[in-house]
Design goal:
The chain contains 15 helices and 32 strands. The protein is α+β, with helices and mostly antiparallel strands.
Length: about 575
Amino acid sequence: MKWLDNILIPTLKESPSEAESLSHKLMIRAGLIRKLSSGIYCYLPLGEKVLSKTIDIVRKHMNLAGAQEVLLPALQPAALWENSGRLKLLGEDIFSFKDRHKNLMILGPTHEEVITDLVSREIKSYKQLPQILYQIQTKFRDEPRPRFGVIRSKEFIMKDAYSFDADEDGLNKNYALMMKTYCNIFSSCGLDFIMVEADPGIMGGGQSAEFMVLSESGEDFIVSCNCGAAFSLDTAPCFFKDIGKRRGKQLLLREVSTPSKMTVEEVSQFLKVSPENLVKTIIYIIEKQGPVAVLVRGDHRINETKLKKLFGANRFNLADGETILGLTGSKVGFSGPVNLRGIKIIADYTVKGMSNFVCGANKNDMHLTGVNESRDFKIDEYADLRFIENGDICPKCQKSKMELKRAIEVGHIFKLGTRYSQVCGATYLDVDQKEKPIIMGCYGLGINRIVAASIEQNHDDKGISWPLSLSPFTIIIVVLNSSNKDVTHFAESIYRKLTRTGIDVLLDIRDRGAGVKFKDADLIGFYMRLVISPRTLSNGIVEMSLRGDGKAKNIKIDKIEMEIKKLLDKN
């Protein structure tokens, strides 16, 4: 491809004001994308090339793993989602509408229901198992707050795969196979990634793992330890050493006035106590359980994922003000465990052993000081209910400290079990002709996110620095003094030779100055740059440099193809 003045590669000198993350800014400045609407982007020629190269890598490794590619409809009948129970769970995140026949339809945010419905009609015997089916498809989610460009958008491209097995052993093998395949995919894309234990969320099922790329623009958090332990923030267990009851004199229980002081910060400042000497009482309404009071230390946050697992509940909500008033006799912000009747009280492990702490008094504008468990109230159950914090002791090695880091999720794998096969009627006849539900796994990967994550990891103050595998063109040939016919003819001959060998080459013969051409090449981040000018031509050389190191090297004209092939084969 020859980069002439009319080629659509519209680079920008400045970042647009709406761009938040670094990858968002650079994708716009480098002419990869343009915004159509909030969370919706057009991919320009260079952006489409990077997407295509990413898809090629994903497809190659999925095929090597023995997976079979299908293409499922983006348009789905809502009845499938009502049957699985997920239509209410996703709620407003789903794009839905009625067709002309008044049937409720959705634009698919994912395809578990569709693939399971398909398999339920096509697979009937254990002889047809196992199977791994995958697709590369556009997905849709009505994100309430699209952010970071293509990292969180309303329309995005995913590779989603589904395994179907006769038993748990088969699922375990395919889960391990996909885990290895994902590692190969991300390595081939040049990503430095971390695999962490994760929560299945609305997908359901059992074991789950996320593949994360560290980035300051990441919307997710992971915690890791130098011992090798790594978790998503939602699932990270907290290490707690039971120190028993703290020794020391128990103070008298006292009511103190705290007018309009409802938050931990307000109460601790007003009473001149540390937040860690406060206990928060948060009341939830748990599905099939009713109201529950959850206690955590004032400087900690309740992890609702852990709460959900503790009760085995898919749905729970914070109690509203009217409910809290009926249960405690006070407004929001003054709840406490003392004299709290007819409601189960559970507490995080860190509350165990606290003495003489402060909590709500169940009276408006009042708190209690000198509170002690057992003497003043009883806790029904202790559990790990809080988010892990930066600097907490690692729950695995129980020695080193955990480090909290921002990250971008690029892949997520799940053991679904029979979560969807049971509700969708996907069964098979075993060797004894007994009907059994098919055991499923699910494996998602974000194509757009891989592109953004690569930019987040590979950039400098000049622009993007693509790895070889994702560079929109492997080589850019920059021609200086394009009006010189000898230089232009020679550059075109090199372009043709390299292109014939299968190398993806862009020839920049625009009528622009050297500074503009170099800045554009650095901004876009092509893997390799060749510079041809009257000076280099007269000296029988071509100047070559890699975007990653920026060191220029002179290559003799008769050795160009050999040197480039040697370098590309090495990388």
